[in-house]
Amino acid sequence: MKKNQNISTNVCPISNTHVDERVARLNGFASLIFVVAGMHLPVLWIIIAIDFALRSFSKKFSPVARFNKLIVVMLKLKPIPINAAPKKFAAKMGFVMSIALLVLSYFELQTAINVLLAIFITAISAEAFFGYCVGCKIYSILLQLKIIKV
User: Whole-angstrom Cα distance, residue 150 to residue 148?
Assistant: First the structure.
């Protein structure tokens, strides 16, 4: 990669691995449902944490991603390939936030839970409804600042 080249979330600086943008947006919508529902039943945050872990640390699809991929296939939607590395980074952020919610709920730190939920729900909603991946943008910034290396 050239030094003057802008880093885009559309071009993978690590490999040519891609994911389907449509599936990613559906994953965001499903994540939103689990996170919001977890406000009333925090055990759901365990489920979404596991799902984020599978999306970010495993080469296999998470159950949520598999289901969403099936929906895309059944609807005969043309895949929109996008860079996988930023999406995996965003999933890692989702995993950390889900675990943080679990810890905060265990210690009954409601104000901290509310702040984290506001951030988390905003980020997930941006992905689900607008296709804007906050974690992907953070990934690009961290690459530009050389905080993470390729």
Answer: 7
Helix, strand counts (H, E) of the chain? 6, 2
Distance, CA of 141 to CA of 19 (rounded, Å): 21
Q: Residue 43 and residue 57: Cα distance in Å, rounded?
A: 21
Phi, psi of 61, rounded to the nearest 5 degrees: -70, 150
Q: What is the mean pLDDT of each run of 10 residues along the chain (150 residues)?
A: 42 68 96 96 94 90 93 96 93 97 96 98 97 95 90
What pLDDT, on a 0 to 100 scale, did the predictor assign at position 58?
Answer: 87
| Alpha-carbon distances of 87 from 75, 94, 111, rounded to whole Å | 23, 10, 29
Does this model's pTM top 0.70? My answer is yes
Q: Is 82 helix (H, G, I), strand (E, B) or coil?
A: strand
Q: Which residue has the tokens 């050239």?
A: 2
Contact 42, 102 (CB under 8 A): yes
Which residues of 21-93 form beta strands (DSSP E)? Answer: 81-83
Single-letter amino acid code for the residue at 84: A
Distance CA 149, CA 76 (A): 37
Q: Where are the domains of the chain?
A: 18-144
